[in-house]
Amino acid sequence: MTLTAAPPPVLQVRGPDGPWTGALAAFERTGVAVVCATQADWRPHLPTGSNLKRLLGRDFRRFRALASDELRARFVASRMLVKHLAAGPLQVRPEDLELGYGMHGRMYLRGCEQVEISLSHTRDVLLVGISSVGLIGVDTEPADRKLYGRDVERLMCTPHERSELDALELTDRNDRLLRLWTLKEAYSKALGQGLLFPFTEFGFVPQGWSAQLARADGTPVGDAQWRYWTVPVAGKFLGAIAVQNNRRSERRDTRVGTALPQRLVNSIQDSLRARAG
Amino acid sequence: MEPNETLHPAGAAALAGTDRLAAAKARVAEVDAAFGDPWHRDNPIGFTAIGAADEAGELPAEGVRRYHELGLNKEFVPAELGGRLDGLDLLGPTLRPIFRRDAALATGCALTAYMAATVVWLNGTESQRKRLADVLLRNGTATIAFQRFDHDNEFVSDEFRARRDSEGIVFSGRKLAINNAADADLLITFAAVGDNAYSVFQFDPDEAGDKLRRLPRHTTNGARGLKISGLEFADARLPMDTLVGGWGDGTAVGLRTFPLIHSSVPSMVVGIGDTALRTAARFGQEKGAYTRGVLEVPRARAALAGTFADLLIGDCLSLVATRAVQLMPDQCDVLGAVVKYVVPKLVSETMYHLSVVMGDAFHARSGHNAIFRKHVRDLATVTFGHVSSAVCQATIAPYLPVLATEKLDLAHAAPADLFRMERPLPALDPAKLAVFGGSDGLGAHLATAAAELPVAVVGGAVGQTLLRQLELLRTELDELQQACATLDGSGYAADPKAFPLTDRYALVLAAATCLGVWLNAGAGPDEFLNDPCWLVLALHRLLRRLGLPGPQLPAEVEQRVCEESLRRAAEARSYDLFGVELSG
Q: Which residue windows are coiled coil (chain B) (predicted)?
């Protein structure tokens, strides 16, 4: 299982039935899979009533608190996508999984540390990443989103990035800004900090489809554990992926069914039964 | 009245107890002082030197020398064998100063040997215990090799195997990653003995003679100074008395050992979080968190207060679980697993959260701020990550169907002594370990403690917040019991639905330990710890992690904890229940 230098393929899934084989194969091969979906594709499949409650579990409270039908539909579609994607490598039913949220919103599968997940959405598109090799963060924005010329660069760029930006042709600056923005979001999300890590304090130097993390003055951080990529998403969107390659196993098993050392469980259950008489 | 009558027996005990606490704090201060000011550039075991050693893939030599000069191996050798181990609750805080500086140094010198030794203290014969104690007391090295797990990492991806015949034991197999394998005077190792069974052995690898092949060094992502390498045995002949415990008893040996390791290692790991927070607090004070004072910047204030609260949660959990090993052995398995499951995650989250204070310096590769990233890297390596969590969940999950029927009332609540570090502990009794199925004294404590809150506290805004938090936690505990009642506990395979429940239960017990320590002034009188602000912030963070939005916090809560966080950086006092004076 090797994380390659090339970006992971972003595979579009049309509904709960997939197709999932590409994502599962990528995950098996590299420890990372990234999928995208449109809400339009998933809307006909969204569960209702008791099926919805079963799928959302404790997330049902969050769902109920949302202000509009549109937000609720996106919420259900995104949770459904995350759980269906994770259910494959974990070999459980999607409704067996429970989502938890870190102090600053980082999504994780409660009680299942063998994988990390990340979710991003914009307009009609959802982007989800799953990793068994370490932290992961993903972000997506519409490729035509206008950032340049709105003073955004002062709020989100390091001094080095701003000087690099100024050296670009005017027509290329928006694309660069969008790329930097999504990379910063992806990395900050991977660290579980959402937008809290000040974007002017760390930067990226794009190189082809990948990128290098840099300090505020442009010096490369040079942490070999991390990889960063920019990827096209569903035609009209731009995505970024940040992955920590902390792989410590040659044959990573992510199945829930094999997570607990069975000898220990058997022995403990025997003791418990003996005590219960 | 005779003068000695003024002392009530309980008062006398309390006085003796205060001595225990005072002695423990003095020892921690002594250990910390011996390693000198870590921030001082010229300190041969300061952060600059530690960073250089890490880059070079070595342990800081001066650190190793001072470790042995202090006789720190003695801290985990039982008193009856010539060591200083007197209550598991004091071990973690005593080794914390080393973890504060360098997790690799602490693991290379202490942690691996401690894990190995625990197996033998609890399961070995007198002569095996004596042999190991002799090695450790002369500053020798003992190491441990575990069996293979399905969800593996480098340390548990392969295993040794053994068989026995009329002449003794035949030992074989290869493991690629054993810490200190090259230097070990004694190897304590699990080995497969067929039919899904394991045995444990203790021997000097050199006893294998030419049947031993030493394998090259193995490098890890974190704790790069560790001297990890492999060993390969080709049908090596070992005497029968190398067997620790009964033939095929390896799983039981492990289960007896886990509560001690699980509860005390997180206590040590709090030291890694201490340095992360101290680095950020010092940095924040120097830089004014970019422009304004740290206290004026909401996200910096939240980070410095929140991470301190998390470290206190970690210390409360460790304190209670280590004391439970001797005070409530029938409950210590689950508690130990809870602590080992929760604390490394808390400390890890803490470190990433401090990026909001550190800013650009979060990525520093040189200077003393570089220690921050080193600690981030080291933590996952020394705490074993998912593999360890899975072992912990394997201990918690089978208990959950039992939890469903537990009576969480006053009669079952944990005794006050569980939370009070000044109280001496009964002797450790290995025969009482790994019995499982004790009740849930901490859950019962949480469920009944609201009635015990001091009237003076309940009146204020912070007290009202605390009451509401306890209500929410009580409800969560009820819901947990209901959810556990629906689990399929009939077979041996864990119900997939048990996994999220192990996580929720662990967070609820974390809240119970914080409450218990606060109510009982567990680490002695202290103005900051007696105040409920840290407790309310700790419970707030645990409720958030449970997915339950708690009541809004009064502004003074975060302010008070952040101020203390900055004060402890300025005065060089530890970020734990001790608040002990440090050398820097």
A: 463-490
Are the Cβ atoms of B356 and A257 closer than 8 angstroms? Answer: no
In a domain, A181, yes or no: yes
Going from N- to C-terminal start, the domains of chain B cover 7-141, 144-248, 252-570
Q: Does B306 touch chain A (CB under 8 A)?
A: yes
* C-alpha–C-alpha distance, residues B161 and B147, integer Å: 9
Q: Does B301 touch chain A if contact means CB atoms closer than 8 Å?
A: no
Kindly state whether B153 is in contact with chain A, defined as any CB-CB distance less than 8 angstroms.
Answer: yes
Cβ atoms of residues A78 and A71 within 8 Å: no
Distance in Å from the first CA to the final CA of chain A: 47
Chain B residues in contact with A225 (beta carbon < 8 A):
221, 377
Domain count, chain A: 1
Q: Is residue A163 part of a domain?
A: yes
DSSP character for B218? E
Going by the DSSP 8-state scheme, the letter that residue B434 receives in this structure is: T
Tell me the DSSP string of A66-84.
Answer: -SSHHHHHHHHHHHHHHHH
In a domain, residue A192? The reply is yes
Please answer whether residues B284 and B294 qualify as being in contact, where contact means their C-beta atoms are separated by less than 8 angstroms: yes
Q: Which of B396, B426, B403 is nearest to B477 (CA)?
A: B403
Site from B503, B542, B545 to mutate, A interface, most A CB atoms within 10 angstroms: B503
Alpha helices in B138-249 (DSSP H): none
Do the chains contact at A261 and B394, CB–CB below 8 Å?
A: yes
What is the CATH classification number for the domain harbouring A245? 3.90.470.20
Query: Measured between CA atoms, how close is B151 to chain A, in angstroms?
Result: 5
| Residue B541 to residue A103, Cβ atoms within 8 A | yes
pLDDT per residue as tens, chain B (584 positions) = 333 333 333 334 444 556 899 999 999 999 999 999 999 999 999 999 999 999 999 999 999 999 999 999 999 999 999 999 988 999 999 999 999 999 999 999 999 999 999 999 999 999 999 999 999 999 999 999 998 877 777 777 789 999 999 999 999 999 999 999 999 999 999 999 987 899 999 999 999 999 999 999 998 888 999 999 999 999 999 999 999 999 999 999 999 999 999 999 999 999 999 999 999 999 888 775 544 567 778 899 999 999 999 999 999 999 999 999 999 999 999 999 999 999 999 999 999 999 999 999 999 988 778 898 899 889 878 876 667 888 899 899 999 999 999 999 999 999 999 999 999 999 999 999 988 878 899 999 999 998 888 877 888 899 999 999 999 999 999 999 999 999 987 766 778 999 999 999 999 999 999 999 999 987 888 899 999 999 999 999 999 999 998 999 999 999 999 999 999 999 999 999 999 999 99
- Is A3 among the domain residues? no
List of chain B residues whose C-beta atoms are within 8 Å of the C-beta of residue A103: 306, 349, 353, 541, 544-545
User: Does the beta-carbon distance from B151 to A114 stay under 8 Å?
Assistant: yes
Domain limits for position A223: 10-276
Cβ contacts of B493 on chain A, cutoff 8 Å: 257, 262, 265
- CATH class of the structural domain B144-248: mainly beta
3-state secondary structure of B172: strand
Q: Please give the ipTM for the structure prediction.
A: 0.94
Helix (H) / strand (E) containing B237: strand B228-238
